[in-house]
Design goal:
single chain, about 210 residues, alpha/beta, Rossmann fold, about 40% helix, globular
Length: about 210
């Protein structure tokens, strides 16, 4: 059995302001730093350490992973062994022209239904941005080329993936934990780990 811990980055400064963030490189808020530390405390309680870590290239995901690894005493070792791997394939969904806009104000302007489609529709693209389907496509290739190889490596038992709401939703579809028509109801809170196990070639959420 393999353990894959998915974690959405801690609250960012733009999460706090209710802004569409997407590819914008923003920092964690003070609350986001605390959330990452609490996640580390949980891993300590579970006696979980990690063989390899994947993050996006965006600061908020990398900082979340680094805070966790530092608190559980693995940051230096995993850095020196090049086991912290960052790739833009795990970046948040590109919100295009919505980036930097307030979500509530955008809903007032375009209507709740339209903004809900942009945020949660599978194939709906915000102007100049990506749909979740687009995110699934880029994450899928990276997952099968890089992450799945590590999951199937007998020397690897525990994997941490620190990324973003939509790139993690994409992973949950790729792992066949959720279907496309179910994923719009899945909410991933900042800084709260989701424990996935891989056993008998099947991914599932740990009970």
């Amino acid at each position: 059995m393999k353990n894959i811990l998915l974690i959405r980055h801690g609250q960012s400064e733009w999460n706090k302001l209710n802004l569409f963030t997407g590819f914008k490189n923003v920092e964690l808020s003070e609350e986001g730093i605390l959330e990452a530390k609490k996640a580390a405390d949980l891993f300590i309680q579970l006696n979980l350490s990690f063989d390899i870590v994947f993050t996006s290239v965006l600061n908020r995901a990398q900082k979340t992973a680094n805070i966790i690894l530092d608190k559980i005493g693995q940051l230096d070792d995993l850095n020196s062994s090049h086991k912290i791997i960052s790739d833009s394939a795990l970046n948040e969904r590109d919100y295009g022209e919505l980036t930097g806009l307030n979500k509530k104000e955008t809903a007032n302007k375009y209507g709740d239904e339209q903004v809900h489609k942009w945020r949660r529709g599978y194939s709906d693209r915000p102007p100049g941005g990506e749909s979740l389907e687009d995110v699934v496509s880029r994450v899928s290739k990276y997952f099968h080329d890089k992450i799945k190889v590590q999951i199937e490596d007998k020397s690897v038992n525990n994997i941490l993936i620190a990324a973003h709401g939509n790139s993690l939703r994409a992973l949950l579809i790729i792992m066949e934990i959720y279907k496309v028509n179910e994923i719009n109801k899945v909410e991933l809170s900042t800084g709260i780990p989701l424990h996935i196990i891989f056993e008998n070639s099947i991914f599932k959420i740990k009970d």
